[in-house]
Here is the input.
Amino acid sequence: MNWEKLTAKDFKEAVAETEVCVIALGVVEKHGDHLPLGTDFLNGQQIATKAAEIEKAVVFPPFYFGQIYEAKCFPGTITLSPNTLLTLLQEVLDEVGRNGFKKIVLYNAHGGNDAFLKFLAQCQIATKRNYQVYMYQKSFTEEERKKITEVLETSVHGHACEVETSISLYHHAQWIRMDQIDAEPFLPLRRLKHMPSMFSALSWYSNYPEHYVGDANKASYEKGKVLAEVEVNSLARFIKAVKEDTTMYQLNEEFHSRAENIKK
Here is the structure.
């Protein structure tokens, strides 16, 4: 169920029935020269919606603010300051909770959000709240991993690649410009390889200055169907586990009781 498509009455009933809200978190950024700027949130919203049809939940309206400073040098990218971004996401979570949801699933549709969303999840115990946040992390079965391996022809992925382009062709082929893909694949430049075991804000840019990875020429609608279905089923299993979970509540009560009584 999509939040924005429900009437107020239907929404109230959906909250009572599911108690779970899924937020697909994407960004607006360059995806090579062939994919739309909204690729992440467009695909994320589709996958979350389909997963919520399998394991009933309410999907938050399309959300496209996230950590994407590394693409600030490209046209069309939308960035918010770090403090604004963190405040925005926290207030969105609080509003979801205020509307009655007891459990919120964060489905990350943009790799650059990983560290930021983990920090956001960690921040949830800074204050006792009336809802719990569960950050989904991909977990495929052996059969699903085999399906992924069987359909892919390339080994380098990450952004606007064979995987992301295939899923995009499956979801919204009308916006894909396959004629704009370079004939040659783009491999990491490794311009910071002289630095041992380092991460920096420029690590991604140092490897992929054109915001394109791999070989999207190998992408297809048929591959996208398989890849998207694997992701949908994995997310649906996670939603089911979240709905059945009671331990997070117990841990939350235990933790905050100890925090509140630490000086007693």
User: Anything to note?
Assistant: The first strand starts at residue 20 and ends at 25. The CA atoms of residues 251 and 257 lie 10 Å apart. The chain is about 45% helix and 5% strand.
